[in-house]
From TrEMBL:
Residues 201-243 are annotated as: Disordered. PANTHER family: V-SET AND IMMUNOGLOBULIN DOMAIN-CONTAINING PROTEIN 2. Residues 201-217 have a biased composition (Basic and acidic residues). PROSITE patterns: IG_LIKE (PS50835). SUPFAM superfamilies: Immunoglobulin. This is V-set and immunoglobulin domain containing 2. It holds the Pfam family Ig_3. InterPro entries: Ig-like_dom, Ig-like_dom_sf, Ig-like_fold, Ig_sub, Ig_sub2, VSIG2.
Length: 243
């Protein structure tokens, strides 16, 4: 603000703005902005008032656009790079005025791709790769450009065979299930033999009238022949049939 021979600056602008004519006594109120920043863009108003007539004023308007070269973009991949899948490569610059235009390219010695297998959007920076095959593997470079310059980023694409992973997973699962089946069969046979032996022992005990406590002390079971004195812990009683 210039008034009555004095110049008044807003603190945030002091040192960054200079009058083309200082003081502007001849009516030239042009200003020069030093070291322009993107935040300086916007609408500027020049307000001129005649001190003898405070009821009216004249205004001049100007819209300032600050041109900014593209910042270094960020390249990313979305999707699973298995054979037959579709994936999308994205490329975005956080800064750039005018809005950057994006273009994708591959290394010069890359294998040729089928027609229409790459769908590029220069406005959003996306690149869709359809029906992946081994030929898609390689490095992809994205360039963001406008009137002030360009910047680039690269991303590597590796194509894997999804069928291999599925086969390996199936083999491992089959092996695990087979091991569980074998363990179940062994456990069943063990329990079956144990129950069968217990039933046999109980039948022998009932038939020979042997004390169960004495029976458990013997690890060989009752003697069906020979001298019972060899196993004094067993007492066998003989009953005469009832008439």
């Amino acid at each position: 603000m210039y008034y009555n021979g004095h110049l008044y600056w807003v603190n945030s602008w002091e040192g960054r703005v200079a009058l083309v004519q200082n003081p502007p006594v001849s009516g030239v109120a042009s200003v020069k902005i030093l070291s322009v920043q993107p935040s300086d863009a916007g609408l500027y108003i020049c307000d001129v008032t005649n001190p003898n007539d405070w009821s009216g004023s004249g205004q001049g308007l100007i819209n300032l656009t600050v041109l900014v070269p593209p910042s270094v973009p960020v390249c990313q991949l979305s999707g699973s790079t298995y054979v037959g899948n579709d994936v999308t490569l994205t490329c975005v610059s956080s800064q750039g005025v005018p809005t950057p235009i994006y273009s994708w390219s591959r290394e010069k010695d890359a294998a040729p791709l089928p027609p229409h297998s790459m769908v590029e959007d220069q406005r959003t920076g996306s690149l869709m790769l359809t029906n992946l095959s081994a030929a898609f593997a390689g490095t992809y470079t994205c360039r963001a450009s406008n009137d002030l310059g360009e910047a680039a980023c690269s991303i590597s694409v590796k194509v894997a065979h999804g069928g291999t992973a599925a086969v390996v997973g199936g083999v491992l699962m089959g092996t695990f299930l087979f091991a569980l089946l074998i363990a179940a069969v062994v456990a069943y046979l063990f329990c079956y033999r144990k129950r069968a032996r217990q039933r046999t022992d109980k039948n022998e005990m009932r038939r020979m009238n042997v004390d169960p406590a004495e029976w458990r002390k013997s690890s060989k079971g009752p003697l069906l022949s020979g001298d019972s004195n060899e196993h004094p812990s067993l007492r066998v009683s003989h009953f005469s049939p009832l008439v």
